[in-house]
Amino acid sequence: MTVAAPTGLERIARAFARAREERRLAVVIYLTVGYPDRASTAGLLRAALDGGADLLELGVPFSDPLADGATVQRASEVALAGGTSLRDCLAEARGLMAEYDAPVIFMGYLNPFLRYGLTAFARDAASAGAVGVIVPDLPAEESADLDAALASVGLTRIDLYASTTPEDRLARLVPRSRGFVYCVSVTGVTGARAALAEDVGAFVARVRVHTALPIAVGFGISRPDQVASLRDVADGVVVGSAAIDVVTNAPRSEGQRALREFVASLVAAGRR
Amino acid sequence: MTPSGRYGEFGGQYVPETLMPAVHELERAWEEAQRDPDFQAELRRLHRDFIGRPTPLTDARRLAEAVGLRRVLLKREDLAHTGAHKINNAVGQALLAVRMGKKRIVAETGAGQHGVAAATACALLGLECIVYMGAVDIRRQAPNVFRMKLLGADVREVVSGSQTLKDAVNEAIRDWVTNVRATYYMLGSAIGPHPYPAIVRELQTVIGVEARAQTLALLGRLPDVVSACIGGGSNAIGIFAPFIADTGVALRGVEAGGEGVATGRHAASIGAGQIGVLHGTRTYVLQDGDGQIAEAHSISAGLDYPGVGPEHAMLAQTGRARYVSVTDSEALEGFRLLARTEGIIPALESAHAIADLRALARAHGAQSEVLLCLSGRGDKDLDTVIAAAEHVPGAD
């Protein structure tokens, strides 16, 4: 008798469940594929996992990342100058899948996915072992085509919710979420910040009413003490710009070690 | 347009979730303002007393003779306050912002014309004004940067990406996402997420409404062709809109062909782009095979944008309007032609439509009567034209 491979949703659920069993926050790390160069990406993604990351977001570089702050903008420009394409991002996912169990999610703006073809992208993402996709410029109202393409191959789109999202909209959309719910902790673009918004706890509680899924908080989280402050608020944290900054600030030969230690410090800070 | 902001398969609201409540709030406020007679009366008063509307219609006889057309009627948006049609939109949106209780305005600008218009409207109504402008555009449009500052605007240099209009839009949207509760985003063209294409169209339709009545008064009939230059397409949709139902009237948009569409260095989004999503709307976009947005190129900073308004995309796809392009050097010829035949120095943007008139005459016949939107005046472009003359033999 053969045992069916776990679906993407099952793998996301398992990653959060494992963190919960270990009494800590799940840590989701975002890295822009192709930064600081194509050859370094595979080693950095593995360093993040070796440091204890529970899920990975593979950033698909885009020329006009209008929801991103300076760090991801610059990383995207460098990646594009190095010739990084969506095809390269799929190849990175495929390589990881062969070695690690951690779920991989693509995060990118809509136009490169459209140009690749939504059906073709969904098929290739599934065969590369990815579990889902986050598209910051695709609100629920415009997502029917992508959702249909993803559903046909068992992938999911992770929705973002913001503190500006009104109550009736949360009540309508959050119950449709799959995998986990991604709460944007600040009004603004991605990027490390000195302080998180004061109302993040209240916002997460507003979302929690509408779902039993795990909730991850992202945008602006850069330090272990910020992760620690979310221990009793969320089920996970997403860290992107700060991880990229760690890579940028380390000597090229030390990037993997620096990232691994940084991720490990975030994981430790999330222990309850 | 459908209720969800669609123009056929184009348009829509492709914005981050943080902005969805803001675009919904804007939709509601705009619908209420359109139904409010006081808002409409105040807008009409500012059209008359501040912008100087109606702008004239000039029967350009020497130009018509030079290009081989029976008649060319110029709708003189160059004579509107601040020297371009952009003020129609800026004043209307500033009134809307006041109505919504937003005191902080952000805007993007390419050539600086929308930035100047936004700064002007904000000065008039006592609003804080922040204008994002690409570093490259700041260098080539220095007089407009000075004007904006004189009017009290905070001009912020954008150094990301290609450092031109598309990057200024990105940065204005980033500011809007960050300060969304207290900030109004004053978008300058008929692009972006719904309801912007509808708002800008409606506020610019005054051009076409006046021109249609003025043409009927002068000729006793409608023109055969209505022509306008197209970047994002706000002056064009403004003059086209009242004629779309007049199926006997041909609509002709002139895109910026830059150094030639075949060179890849141009801004002809309809002529050479593919369907994609840029800045919140589905439309024709200049892009590479990986879906990365391409840099647009035009001698005219106001047409230097790699997308086009979604309603134009629909008009092109359905064939209701026809879109052509002229190159930088042809636009320079059009610039000189209008100056010498009519004593009017046009904006380089509008000079594209002038430069297309001979091809228009070949396509529609020498007996055609043409209504052309002269979207702005050319004083801002003198440095560019002087610099081009140094590189192009005989271009003086």
How would you describe this structure to a colleague?
The complex is a heterodimer of chains A (272) and B (396). With 272 residues, chain A is an alpha/beta fold. Chain A has one domain: TIM Barrel. Chain A has helices at 8-21, 38-50, 70-81, 86-99, 110-116, 118-127, 144-151, 167-173, 200-208, 224-228, 241-249, 255-269; strands at residues 26-32, 55-59, 104-107, 132-134, 156-157, 160-162, 181-184, 215-218, 236-239. In chain A, strands 5-4-3-2-1-9-8-7-6 form a 9-stranded parallel sheet. In chain A, helix 6 (118-127) packs parallel to helix 7. Chain A is globular. The N and C termini of chain A lie far apart (40 Å). By secondary structure, chain B is an alpha/beta fold. Helix content of chain B is 45%, strand content 17%. Chain B is built from 16 helices and 14 strands. Chain B has a 6-stranded mixed sheet, sandwiched between helices. A 4-stranded parallel sheet of chain B has the order 7-6-5-8, with helices on both faces. In chain B, helix 9 (196-219) crosses helix 10. Chains A and B meet through helix 3, helix 5 and strand 6 of A and helix 1, helix 8 and strand 11 of B.
Largest sheet of chain A: 9 strands, parallel
Structural class computed from helices and strand pairing of chain A: alpha/beta
Instruction: Give me the oligomer status.
Output: heterodimer
- Biggest sheet architecture of chain B: 6 strands, mixed
Order of helices and strands of chain B: EEHHEHEHEHEHHEHEHEHEHEEHEHHHEH
Largest interface: A-B, 38 and 39 residues
Determine the CATH superfamily of chain A.
Answer: Aldolase class I
Report strand % of chain B.
Answer: 15-25%
Number of strands of chain B: 14
**Total number of distinct structural domains of chain A:** 1
Widest beta sheet: strand line-up of chain A: 5-4-3-2-1-9-8-7-6
Question: How many helical stretches of chain A?
Answer: 12
Percentage of residues in helical conformation of chain A = 40-55%
CATH class of chain A: Alpha Beta
Globally, the shape of chain A reads globular
Compute the gyration radius of chain B: what is it? Answer: 19 Å
Rg calculated over all Cα atoms of chain A = 17 Å
Overall pLDDT metric of chain A: 95
* Overall average pLDDT of chain B: 95
Strand content of chain A: 5-15%
